[in-house]
Amino acid sequence: MKRIIKSAIGILILMSTSNLFSQENKQEIKYSETSRVIKPTLFADLGETCQTPDGMALDKKGNLFLAITNPISFEKYGSKILTFDKNDKPIIWFDKLPLHPVTNKVHPMGMEFGPDGNLYIMDNQFFTRNENLSRLIRIIVKDGKPINAEVLAEGFNFGEAVRWSKNRVYITDALFENRRESGIYSFSLEELNKKNIVLNPSNKKDYLVATFTLKSEVTKRTIGIDGIAFDKKGNLYAGNFGDGVITKMEFFADGKLKSKKIVFDSDKLKCCDGFFYDEKRNSIFIANYENNSVHQLNLDTNTISLIWENENANGSDGLLDNPCETIVYKGKLLVVNYDTFEGEKNKEADSFHTISSFEL
Question: How far apart are CA 206 and CA 178, in angstroms?
Fold first, then answer.
């Protein structure tokens, strides 16, 4: 009888464990095949000196800002932060970002305004073919105008996105040294104000929130975790550039990781670049760099739908050309066209440097 009871208990435990794993592995998000197609129009032609646009940000007044990275044309045109005038024409807002003392270059990418009203920017030094030199930079802002810029933290490898939640900033590093892993780091505003944070092999774990590994079937040279966005509940969604996997993270009140779960893994979306959360629509808008497409992740319905996709294009008429970042500005979805390196659909880097617009 004891053996029978033990066996029954063992089966129950096994069944319980199996159910637990099946619940953990069950995806929360589905792909919708019934998408509402919205054709893009041209929002902005950035001109010859802004050859590689990337990250976007909105200040508290709703003004739009754009990072110009220019990794290929830096010697000729430098890098800068643009804003847009009342007619939505691009103008230079700040072009005195601190050059790295080793490379004499600076390449702004992801950025966001912090709770202190200053602009926080990731400088991706991987473009200089140097590893672990990427930096977090802060532009001090007063009355809407940039005063000066300072380096707060360094030692990231392939620095990408910057997102704030309460008094903590979260930064994606899309490529660790083993070329399969990537991660998200986090710093409190108090830590940043002390400045001079230098990441190294011994202290990186102190700031590392989560790590991610490319799917085994991905064998091409690519990068990992890229776009991130917080929803209104404080959950963090992260998209992997190299395989399109989306992970959801929850946090305790002190900012420590509570849970981490893959919520979407499908061949319908093989690449995630920039993420932007729009509270009005409770949705994350996703730039699909490799596919020349943009998608909406609706958190009310937990579905991803296609907004638009096109084949190779130069972006001059608003069609997507390696879309890398998304943002909702004045009710429109804006998508930045990176168009700097050849990709799966992008056959060449052309002479147009543009932002596309979608009427939502």
Answer: 19
HSE toward the beta carbon, residue 336, CA cutoff 13 A: 28
* Gap between the Cα atoms of 358 and 39, Å rounded: 7
pLDDT tens figures, 314-331: 999 999 999 999 999 999
Please list the residues that pair with 285 across neighbouring strands: 276, 296
| Mean pLDDT of all residues in 29-46 | 94
Contact 241, 292 (CB under 8 A): no
Q: How far is CA 198 from CA 91, 133, 192, 210, 247, in A?
A: 33, 10, 11, 19, 27
Tokens of 60: 């508290």
Cβ(255)–Cβ(188) under 8 Å?
yes
**pLDDT the model gives residue 79:** 98
* Residues 6 or more apart whose Cβ sits within 8 Å of residue 63: 83, 84, 144
Distance, CA of 30 to CA of 45 (rounded, Å): 35
3-state secondary structure of 329: strand
Among 163, 117, 116, CA closest to 136: 163
Report the alpha-carbon distance of residue 178 to residue 342 in Å, rounded: 24
pLDDT attached to residue 102: 98
Could you tell me if 336 and 324 are in contact, meaning their C-beta atoms sit under 8 angstroms apart?
yes
Evaluate if residue 25 carries a pLDDT over 60. no
- pLDDT computed for residue 15 by the predictor: 38
At residue 34 the predicted structure's pLDDT band, cuts being 50, 70 and 90, is: confident
Give domain limits for the chain: 30-359
Here the tokens at position 223 are 């990068």
Tokens found for residue 241 = 């550039």
Whose CA is closest to 264, among 311, 305, 222, 325?
A: 305
The pLDDT, as a whole number, for residue 180 is: 97
Q: Which pLDDT score, from 0 to 100, does residue 229 have?
A: 98
Q: What is the pLDDT of residues 284-302, one digit of tens each?
A: 999 999 999 999 999 999 9
Which class is domain 30-359? mainly beta
Alpha-carbon Rg for the chain, nearest whole angstrom, is: 21
